[in-house]
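Q: Got a minute? One more chain.
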Amino acid sequence: MKATFLLLVVVAALATPAVATELDFARDIQPLLARRCYACHGPDTQEGGLRLDDAAAAKVNADSDAKNIRAALGDIAGERARMLAEADTQAAAVLTEGRTRIIAEVAELEAKAETDLSAARGRSSDELRAEISMLAALATPVVVEATLTDQTKNDLIEAFITSVGAAR
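A: Always. Here it is, folded:
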């Protein structure tokens, strides 16, 4: 009986397929990719630029990317110098453009001021005083409103009321 049982265990062990100790890409992985992934990442369609059916091309691309990364890491000083030189060039262009614009604006303002002065020379002092008074009357409320806070306005009103009350 023991021999029969032992024989059954040996036969069962030989009949059971062996469990693979190592993964094999062609046997274990590629069929899974073919069933689940190649429809979107295969020879006809590569969503997101990912192609899973061509291992050789993927290896070449990975090797190329790794080489470029290593080269970039090895030349950090050169890349930094290139970026700083580019920034300096851009800054110089912005400064040149800004200076040109400012020079043009100053020239325009000087020309306008000269025109205004020429026009004012021909006017009498009474006309100029009247225009200055009118402009001051227009500008004063705007300036006061823009510069006084609510607290300052209240303080001025209280001071006025106090001074009027003290004068009685």
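A: The chain has seven helices and no strands.
Q: Perfect, thanks.
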